[in-house]
Amino acid sequence: MSLTATTTLANGVQMPWLGLGVYKMDGDNEVKEAVASALEIGYRSIDTASFYDNEEGVGQAIKQSTIPREQLFVTTKVWNSEQGYNETLAAFERSLTKLGLEYIDLYLIHWPVPGKYKDTWKALEKLYKDGKVRAIGVSNFLEHHLKDLLKDATVKPMVNQVEFHPQLSSRSLRDYCSQHHIQVEAWSPLGRGRYLDDDTLQALATKHGKSPAQIMLRWDYQHGVVTIPKSTKKHRQEENAAIFDFQLSDEDMQQLDGLDIDKRYGRHPDEFDYENS
């Protein structure tokens, strides 16, 4: 297994298990250099968003690379203030132009804006049916959002990207997504680095000759969760990618599962200030 390893989404599209997240990367040189080094290492999945304001930099790095477009998997997202049917269609075109691409591999609703996400989803369904996106999905949707969406959806979300790490394992949500063939994807897979010094992580890192970050990313992978760790530094990107040459035992996995305290380092989808976002 390697950086080219993929999971198969509900519609048959292959999505890499590991990708590069570019949240909070500067829109010009920083993101271009980060994407360029990741592609050189072997990453083929890049995750950006309208809100990150760096789609142009991502697009420039892709354009400058020699990797065929069909080998890349590019994700972007529609922001809260862009939601609604017509607004989303316009937002998609803006993102496509900034990225300089002819299609997007995965387009996500960034957050479940109350009263808007259903119309936004209808726009994603149109983009999907029109062949402008290879797969569509959501981000930060809890079970009740998914249940509500599925009442009217003609196409099920193929991905749900949520905050996920050992202190927030969201077992019930993962089970629900699994039942509906929705691939779970982790943002903030390292818990923003807040507990890399945890005794359990340290002990497992020593046991396997790996870093605590690699232990966490391998835990994601063995739980069948796609992950997109963010790093601007090449040596960190290489470290994050080196998770396919070892395996956590069932006991290791149980120890890591035991770290779950339902702890979020990002915002809770039901407590987000949507009116001012």
Automatic annotation (TrEMBL):
GO molecular function, one term: oxidoreductase activity, acting on the CH-OH group of donors, NAD or NADP as acceptor
Origin superkingdom: Bacteria
Location of the active site: 52
CDD domains, sorted: AKR_AKR5G1-3 (cd19157)
Protein name, UniProt field: Glyoxal reductase
Organism the protein comes from: Pontibacillus litoralis JSM 072002
Keywords per UniProt: NADP, Oxidoreductase
Residues with site note (Lowers pKa of active site Tyr): 77
Stored Pfam families: Aldo_ket_red
Record's keyword annotation contains NADP: yes
Homology family: Belongs to the aldo/keto reductase family.
Source species taxonomy: Bacteria, Bacillati, Bacillota, Bacilli, Bacillales
Occurrences of domain NADP-dependent oxidoreductase (ranges): 20-260
Residues the entry annotates as binding substrate: 110
